[in-house]
């Protein structure tokens, strides 16, 4: 057996040990498509008023993030370093600050004129 064949067989074994078969990716993909189509339908059909629509889209976005983390990025794996969870939390803080700041500025404006 060559070195390349050994690496390929090891990679297949590692995926099966952790339950990351192709079905998990297929299920995650289908859920992602459903969440995306639900958000698109809500917006295009004008099914709600703007305020509840915004809240619903934000909930769908959070669900989409969770699907990406658990089905594709395998966030529950303990194989990697422990600090990756802290870096993920820091990324959420940065994203929250950017989004909240953008909404704040769009809502209240800056009052600066040029």
Q: Can you offer a commentary on this structure?
A:
By secondary structure, the chain is mainly α. It has four helices and no strands. Helix 2 runs antiparallel to helix 3.
Element layout with pairings:
Elements: H1 3-17, H2 22-44, H3 50-72, H4 83-108
Keyword list:
flat; 114 residues
Report a brief summary of the structure:
This protein is an all-alpha fold and 114 residues long. Helix content is 76%, strand content 0%.
Mean of residue pLDDT values: 79
Order of helices and strands: HHHH
What's the tally of helices?
4
Helix content: over 70%
> Which shape, going by the Cα principal axes?
flat
Distance between the termini: 71 Å
């Amino acid at each position: 057996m060559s070195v390349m064949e050994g690496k390929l067989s090891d990679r297949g074994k590692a995926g099966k040990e952790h339950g990351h078969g192709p079905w998990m990716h297929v299920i995650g993909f289908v859920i992602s498509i459903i969440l995306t189509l639900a958000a698109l339908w809500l917006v295009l059909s004008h099914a709600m008023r703007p305020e509840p629509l915004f809240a619903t889209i934000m909930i769908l976005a959070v669900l989409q993030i969770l699907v990406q983390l658990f089905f594709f990025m395998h966030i529950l794996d303990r194989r990697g370093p422990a600090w990756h969870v802290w870096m993920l939390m820091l990324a959420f803080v940065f994203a929250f600050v950017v989004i909240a700041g953008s909404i704040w500025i769009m809502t209240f404006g800056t009052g600066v004129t040029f």
